Structure to design on (1034 residues):
């Protein structure tokens, strides 16, 4: 599902290549999802959720995704869980649990939004500070900028 | 996507029909048996030589080998003598490994985290393996076919056949199999490998996405050649004596059309002819190109021995004098040495 | 229930694969902010006399091209086919086997199929087939041919400036097809129409005029080094005052200006100065810095062969003017590709120089005997091997180091062991990254070949992701906190990359680590390293 949000041709690569170094996107997504599932069925510890969602969203925040697309994969969990629940428990006594699960996933979505924003802010911070960090700070240390500014 | 391989498949089927009806219905034995093969051989030879000459005569302005290992530098640092050759000997070994064993494809490896966090690496070797199988099998098949163009058959062709055949007459019942050919591995390997190469173009998405009709066409054509050859050899028996008579006729430039050689032979012959014609105009020229690739066939020694660019030409530069003229005062003020004290 | 569901494998595997809606030729170009660099400033283009200087914006429809631009490109391709066997063969022999496809850091990071090296080359190859091959003229798109339209041109610009010329794909190609070579030619063609990026064009103009990419004038260059002298004196108690433009010095030293003007390269620069002072005091080593040839890097390499030659000419010209014996080169990536594979061919023969011999160890640098330029890692490795440096590696004990092979020294030269040997001798904690991410398989920083601008930060983060991922691995496994490299662009761009992906890891150059460990005659008891961070065991003082 997450992988399917990539162009089909890429998604094949992401799914196919198991090497964590040749394929960081697939590997990171895979590992993140693994821990995410654990958290989902566990106590929804915010820290655990952030540490599983962050690597996935960190990648998507710089790739060609709109913000909504970048975190939409979280909400597609609902569909997956329903499909499996319908298969496993056709007698529909799971409505309550599903409701609980939905609200957990909504919660994930909000955390995901926080992470996405944090990544984008980090990116803009890097963008705006890089030149300064690199060059101006060297010049400033050298006292070469003093006469030019202020 | 589909368009690309459908077009190629249809093209090969049309070729089959042309040969089939051309011989069977229209009786154009001379056209398909003599004219087209001669023409194809001529186009192949002239085209191939032209292309290789064209490459060989184009300049190599810079020495740009891809260095795939440690350079030759200090005497106590071990050089990767053939992955980063500094001498012609190293280059020759590198080229042999490249041309005969597809060294670069062999590099295709990947790492895997197995189970827990244990790191292990495996070769991503399928492409290498099948590509190697395909090319070697093709070579063996070509050499085996020399038996049709030489009388007596050279001993090394016979020896190769001996190695290649794995079910030979002597192992079979005298009564039933006398005179039957053994099974040649090369033909089967060729067919299996070419099918693999085709399937990976269909099923591996990245490869599918980059594949053109001109990638599928030679695969289908070679499949056609292999299938028609195998059919002739094991299933639809053709008159081998007649075929040899015919091919010897071609080889000695006294062609004649033998009686009773089945139409399948003409199909095979047309496929081969088309492949020969197609060859110099296509990517199949990688056969020649691989020897001339400047990133592989040059030694990485341009710091030890000057490489000459035949078309090197003078360019505009910003000279020190121009530089000093612009900044002289500032340089003097900063205590930097100058050539002239004032403008 | 939980056990049945918690299977991310299923999530990955059951997600049926759909065919792309359009083939690559029919997928229109979409120039996305964050992925491209700003267009070149006309003043810079004009200063070096390159074609079609004008203000233009890639996001606008009109790129203000010359009227006969198709003809210019056609002629440009023709001319280059006649001049470069590499170009001709690489246009002809690709079989599209796909071995290169997933080797490109930009493809891995962006997932954009046109970043597969084979497709990047096909962008140009398709036009070549259309204009120059029989099959292409007859069979058109079936043979992979297409005419050069404005959209195709825009695609070239977009994707040839999404390639860092790192040559990783070329290592895996069975015919050695080098996308760097294709990108170089592609950019040459684009430059014929004035389609460059400013992050390349302006450094080129600066370098041409002032000798370095930042346009720093000679007095300011000296001021900067003088400042390092003061800083070093504070830390070590030694005055390392260098010499400038000194005629008759034994050796000329050239390093990228990034080392002089940009953190953390500045610490590497301080490292050179400390080393040279040490050698001068102990062995009478006589080296000089030039303000005229104050740039080792060569952004001309990212413009055209001719521009590369024009900028590179300063090195030999200055060596000749100063009458030195040979040239020592600092830590830089593409600078060394140019020196190793282009310099003497372009601007030689260097017959006015002597075959390089280390004045300290007597070692003859046989591998550089014609070009007469030696890499500082080769030079220092030789010194250490001969036990000529007094080192205290424990001073680097706070650093847990890994080494990033820069693309050009790795795949355009093969300098793999020398820097490792040096680093292992000056640091006690060294760990390699996984084998398919180093040496000839090294992953690019994602910002080379002139793409280290700010506006294309998303591209840089994508392209650097495979490298960062490997750094993250050794960070988590071995606690690595320092990424060492021998390239000024690496030093300039890795801090940003690390900040996004592995914020705990800092960036350094080889020579900085050497200088930290080097015990200078008469130095005071050092409390801090070159960055002012307390040395191990001195944290409390």
């Amino acid at each position: 599902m997450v992988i399917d949000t990539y162009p089909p041709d890429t998604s094949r690569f992401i799914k196919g290549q198991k090497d964590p170094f040749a394929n960081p996107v697939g590997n990171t997504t895979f590992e993140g999802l693994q821990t995410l599932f654990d958290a989902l069925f566990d106590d929804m510890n915010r820290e655990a959720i952030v540490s599983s969602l962050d690597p996935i969203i960190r990648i998507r925040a710089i790739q060609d995704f709109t913000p909504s697309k970048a975190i939409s994969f979280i909400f597609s969990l609902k569909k997956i869980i329903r499909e499996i629940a319908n298969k496993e428990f056709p007698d529909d006594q799971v409505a309550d649990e599903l409701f609980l699960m939905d609200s957990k996933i909504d919660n994930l979505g909000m955390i995901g939004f926080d992470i996405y924003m944090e990544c984008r802010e980090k990116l803009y911070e890097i963008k705006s500070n890089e030149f300064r960090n690199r060059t101006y700070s060297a010049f400033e240390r050298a006292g070469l900028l003093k006469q030019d500014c202020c | 996507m589909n368009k690309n391989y459908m077009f190629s498949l249809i093209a090969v089927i049309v070729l089959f029909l042309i040969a089939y009806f051309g011989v069977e219905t229209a009786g154009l034995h001379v056209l398909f048996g003599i004219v087209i093969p001669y023409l194809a051989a001529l186009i192949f030879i002239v085209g191939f030589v032209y292309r290789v000459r064209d490459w060989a005569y184009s300049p190599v302005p810079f020495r740009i080998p891809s260095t795939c290992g440690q350079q030759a530098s200090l005497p106590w640092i071990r050089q990767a003598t053939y992955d980063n050759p500094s001498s012609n000997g190293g280059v020759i070994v590198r080229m042999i490994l490249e041309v005969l064993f597809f060294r670069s494809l062999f590099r295709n490896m990947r790492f895997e985290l197995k189970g827990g966090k244990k790191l292990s690496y495996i070769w991503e070797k399928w492409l290498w393996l099948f590509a190697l199988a395909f090319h070697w099998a093709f070579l063996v098949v070509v050499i085996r076919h020399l038996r049709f163009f030489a009388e007596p058959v050279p001993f090394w062709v016979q020896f190769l056949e001996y190695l290649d055949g794995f079910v030979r007459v002597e192992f079979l019942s005298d009564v039933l199999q006398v005179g039957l050919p053994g099974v040649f591995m090369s033909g089967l390997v060729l067919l299996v490998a070419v099918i693999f190469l085709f399937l990976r173009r269909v099923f591996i998405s990245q490869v599918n996405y980059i594949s053109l009709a001109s990638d599928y066409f030679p695969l289908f054509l070679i499949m056609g050649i292999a299938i028609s050859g195998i059919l002739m050899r094991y299933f639809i028996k053709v008159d081998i004596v007649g075929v040899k008579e015919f091919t010897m006729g071609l080889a000695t430039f006294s062609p004649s059309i033998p009686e009773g050689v089945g139409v399948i032979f003409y199909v095979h012959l047309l496929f081969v002819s088309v492949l020969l014609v197609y060859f110099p105009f296509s990517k199949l020229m990688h056969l020649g190109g691989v020897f001339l690739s400047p990133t592989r066939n040059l030694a990485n020694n341009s710091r030890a021995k000057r490489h000459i660019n035949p078309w090197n030409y003078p360019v505009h530069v910003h000279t020190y004098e121009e530089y000093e003229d612009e900044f002289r005062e500032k340089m003097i003020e900063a205590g930097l040495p100058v050539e002239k004290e004032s403008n | 229930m939980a056990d049945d569901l918690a299977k991310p494998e299923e999530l990955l595997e059951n997600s049926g694969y759909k065919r792309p809606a359009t083939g690559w030729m029919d997928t229109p170009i979409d120039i996305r902010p964050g992925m491209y660099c700003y267009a070149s400033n006309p003043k810079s283009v004009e200063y070096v006399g390159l074609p079609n200087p004008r203000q233009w914006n890639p996001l606008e429809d009109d790129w203000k091209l010359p009227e006969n631009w198709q003809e210019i490109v056609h002629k440009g391709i023709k001319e280059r086919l006649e001049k470069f066997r590499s170009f001709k063969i690489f246009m002809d022999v690709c079989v599209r086997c796909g071995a290169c496809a997933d080797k490109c850091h930009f493809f891995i990071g962006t997932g954009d199929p046109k970043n597969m090296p084979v497709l990047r080359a096909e962008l140009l190859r398709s036009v070549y087939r259309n204009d120059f091959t029989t099959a292409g003229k007859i069979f058109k798109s079936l043979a992979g041919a297409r005419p050069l339209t404005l959209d195709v041109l825009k695609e070239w610009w977009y994707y040839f400036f999404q390639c860092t010329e790192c040559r990783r794909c070329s290592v895996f190609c069975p015919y050695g097809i080098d996308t760097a070579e294709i990108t170089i030619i592609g950019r040459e063609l684009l430059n014929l129409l004035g389609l460059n990026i400013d992050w390349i064009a302006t450094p080129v103009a600066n370098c041409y005029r002032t000798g370095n990419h930042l346009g720093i004038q000679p007095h300011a260059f000296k001021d900067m080094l003088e400042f390092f002298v003061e800083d070093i004196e504070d830390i070590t108690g030694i005055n390392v005052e260098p010499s400038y433009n000194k005629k008759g010095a034994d050796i000329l030293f050239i390093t990228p200006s990034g080392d002089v003007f940009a953190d953390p390269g500045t610490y590497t620069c301080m490292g050179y100065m400390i080393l040279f002072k040490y050698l001068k005091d102990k062995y009478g080593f006589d080296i000089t810095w030039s303000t005229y040839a104050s740039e080792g890097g060569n952004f001309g390499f990212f413009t055209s062969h001719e521009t590369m030659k024009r900028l590179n000419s300063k090195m030999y010209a200055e060596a000749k003017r100063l009458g030195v014996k040979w040239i020592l080169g600092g830590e830089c990536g593409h600078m060394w590709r140019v020196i190793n594979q282009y310099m003497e061919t372009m601007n030689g023969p260097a017959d006015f120089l002597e075959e390089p011999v280390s004045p300290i160890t007597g070692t003859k640098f046989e591998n550089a005997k014609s070009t007469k330029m030696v890499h500082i890692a080769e030079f220092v490795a030789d010194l250490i091997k001969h036990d000529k440096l007094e080192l205290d590696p424990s001073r680097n004990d706070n650093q847990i180091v890994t080494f990033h092979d820069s693309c050009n020294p790795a795949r355009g030269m093969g300098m793999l062991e020398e820097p490792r040997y040096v680093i292992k001798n000056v640091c006690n904690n060294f760990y390699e990254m996984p084998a398919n991410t180093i040496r000839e398989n090294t992953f690019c920083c994602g910002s080379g070949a002139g793409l280290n601008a700010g506006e294309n930060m998303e591209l840089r983060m994508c392209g650097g992701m495979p490298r960062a991922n490997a750094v993250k691995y050794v960070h988590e496994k071995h606690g690595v906190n320092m990424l060492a490299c021998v390239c000024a662009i690496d030093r300039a761009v890795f801090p940003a990359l690390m900040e996004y992906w592995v914020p705990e890891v800092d960036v350094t150059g080889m020579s900085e680590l050497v200088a930290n460990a080097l015990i200078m005659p008469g130095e005071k008891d050092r409390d801090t390293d070159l960055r002012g961070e307390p040395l191990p065991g001195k944290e409390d003082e």
User: Anything to note?
Assistant: Chain C touches chain A through 61 residues (CB under 8 Å). The longest strand of chain C covers residues 251-254.
